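Record type: monomer structure entry
Structure origin: computed from sequence
Chain ID: A
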Amino acid sequence: MRKIAIDIVSDIACPWCAIGYARLELAMQRLASEFAFTIRWHAFELNPEQSGEGEPILPALARKYGRSEDEMRANQSQMMTIAQDLGINFAKIQERRSCNTFDAHRLVKWADEQGEATAMKKALFEAYFGRAENVSEHEVLLRCVEAVGLDSGGAREVLASGQYADAVRQDEASYQQAGVSSVPAYIINDKYLISGAQEPETLVSALQEIAAEAEEAPQ
């Protein structure tokens, strides 16, 4: 079976990253008979300077993008509808607060060593968009760890230390240097870039085209 490696650059605080992965899952399911997929997650921070409890998300987004709160509310409502159709929980997307995701990214790195990076990422999306929990708080992060079935004691040790901090910073630096300025971004087979939360049909076509081009390339 042909192999496709997908490196995903994303942030836990990015709703389009959650939507994008759900769409990618659908695309991979449709192509499961043709390809074996490998997923690798990489860190990106939308709000690296954020600290503390943050602020309510609608005014924070309005200020960041120079739009009104009503426009941001309508935008978030649209995402809720999209998420519902994909079976992902965005019930409290408008009730969340801006927050720092650095420690959450460290835990994704830790979970990756146990083969559970994707499950950890999805648990974090659920906590932030589904329950409006502050994913910078260690107790919230530990509940996500437990939901995935990983050892909360080991996760607590990671959070109390600086483990995986360098790996997260290296991710952020390397992909920024490579020109990734928005997420989600998918790097296919270390060569092709797909930007944004594309529809499943678009992803299916793109992955098939990439595989065909790779087969035609001189060895």
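Annotation 1: The CA atoms of residues 79 and 108 lie 24 Å apart.
Annotation 2: The longest strand covers residues 2-10.
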